[in-house]
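Entry 14. Ran structure prediction on the chain below.
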Amino acid sequence: MENIKVFLDTDVLINWLSKEEDPNTGEKLWEAPYKILKAIESGKIFGMTTLLNFMEILFVLRRKKRWKDNEIVKKTKAIHSMANFDIFIPTQEDIMLGYNMQMLLEFDPFDSIYYAVGKRYANHIITRDSAFIKNVSTIEKRSFAITPEEFLESFY
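Output, structure tokens:
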């Protein structure tokens, strides 16, 4: 299992950072991301995201969650300092691949870049974005983009 590399999307990291629960069902959305991050931290799998994801996290926590900057720094530092976790800066090649994907499918600009980086470096993209999962499944014809729960069910 050490060879499994997962790309964590913004929503999954925010689930964990904010200890989010589904307001309709009470489901603890943060539990599966927490288990995945623990597996990364222990070296069972390798995790990654992009600097753009961190920029998106900063925006969401500031504007939508109304967190103070010192709280954001404290919480995100846990991810920055985690062993077996990289934060990629998308390359020109990633952006071009993302642009090409955006021309073919209904990806937003961020998702197109996340897909490009995930495709180059990861075995799976872990996200809660159902439209993104559907688009990626159309392209890949396999379960490449999956929810945190699906990942845990398949690999644990």
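The radius of gyration is 15 Å. Will compare against last week's run tomorrow.
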